[in-house]
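Chapter review: from sequence to fold.
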Amino acid sequence: MSRLHRLLPLLKICFAGACIVWSYHLPMPGNAVAIVAGLAAAMSIHTDMKGWQKAFWMILMGVFVVLELKSIKTDRIESMRTQTDIQLLVDTFSQLPPHKTYYSDSRFN
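The token string follows.
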């Protein structure tokens, strides 16, 4: 067994830990996809896998894809809320009366 193959159980633990943490605190969109790419790369290195090991890696990839989709959805909802708040402020300020000048000097008008 090569040195790289000995690191794979550690990678599994780290990726599973990231799944647990990110299920409570969603990552920014794009981060989970990067992890899926890393999982695919790690899986391609490990050539002599048993069926249960392949299933474990595929389940991890599926979880990260679901996390990515949730992250994108949450980001879009937050963006829509922000845009709604901005539009509300613009509408509120557009309804204010025009600014009145109180200076008699023409330099300030």
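Two observations follow directly from the output. Residues 3-94 form one domain. Residues 4 and 30 are 27 Å apart (CA to CA).
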